[in-house]
Give the backbone structure.
Amino acid sequence: MEFEGLPEGCIADILSRTTPMDACRLSLVSKLFHSAADSDAVWERFLSSDYHSIISQSLLPNYPSKKALYLALSDHPVILDEGKMSFQLEKKSGKKCYMLAARALTIIWGSTDQYWNWLTHPDSRFPEVATLRDVCWLEIRGVLKTLTLSPDTQYAAYFVFKMINARGFENVCVELSVNFDGDHGSSKNVCLDPRERSRNERGVAGLQRPSARSDGWLEIEMGEFFNIGIEDEVQMSVMAVKDGRWKSGLLVEGIEVRPKYEN
Amino acid sequence: MGERGEEWEAVMLRKAEEEESKAVKKVKLVTSDGVTMEVEISTVKEMETIQAFMNATDTDNSIIFPLPKVSSHILSRIMELMSGEYDQELVKRLSHEELKEICMVANYLNMKTLLHLTASAIANLIQNKSVEFVRHFFNIINDFTPEEEVQLRKTHEWAFEGVDED
């Protein structure tokens, strides 16, 4: 028998088992595919099953379709927990991403005006960012429950910050760690100073440096972990406590946890 | 044994016969190439479209259900998959043509397990593939105008990065 072609419902069923990226690209196959690829049945599956409860606390406009809602959630982070956290979907896969705002982190000396200040910043998605006035003990810690993340997914944590008239970070090793499930984890030394200086690279030559994000901030990978989807915590930290140098001019936006793919 | 006893025996016999006829009751499926296949009532339970028809038509006679869109080849493949308890290995051995046809039939007959299995298998085959590859895979003719296609591609530019080569 000549194959007549699949009905729209069948195509939608198949597309809902691919990825958001596939469904968008394959909407170009034909008009029938386009209609199937835009259907709510497909995008309801791509939106994580608990998205209702996650975004219920934020005031989102009514989107005309599930696809429009998906694209909005992947293009713009939603601010949760009174500005202490943001939620977003990774556009290609629909996996969940979170950013812990500086206010959700434990910052040693963070509540002492003499050392840290809390300011608004035009580039920030959050109401406040932490601004370092002066410390020689730099310690920032964040914790995220792994159940809030997508299961069976390789994630990485990123420290998101800016340097404005910064002092004390040149030639200084900063230790970044990611720990989960008791003692599984990793730590590494990086240099948070984005500028490579030709002279005096002693101690930090060859160390990883931050890169620029599209939102105006810098980021540096802190480490990665595989989330199998059981109840657990990821503990992330930024530490510079051994060099004894006074540091200033660091603006902390937060720590972002998002999927990481092999290139 | 008196008259009453014989009567009672006859009732029990009739009951047993009824039970038996219920147990072996079969459904005849007539395929597009005119082949009649007798299948067990238990098989039909998974074909929700036919089951709904049977529930609606209360008949004692054997049921004949025409399947004008299903060939005998595809129907026997479906029977193999069902008796093999939907083994993934059996699915892997299907040709692309068979896979597409079985998916279509599973959709038409509302066979949930079979639809899930074949739709997932097809999804794996088209994931990260180009638009041209998928048109070819499904034998689909592009019915967009060049302008429409350019416009759609522009809207979904991000979805075209890192696609597999055909």
Observations:
- The mean pLDDT of chain B is 87.
- Residues 3-127 of chain B form a domain with the Potassium Channel Kv1.1; Chain A fold (CATH 3.30.710.10).
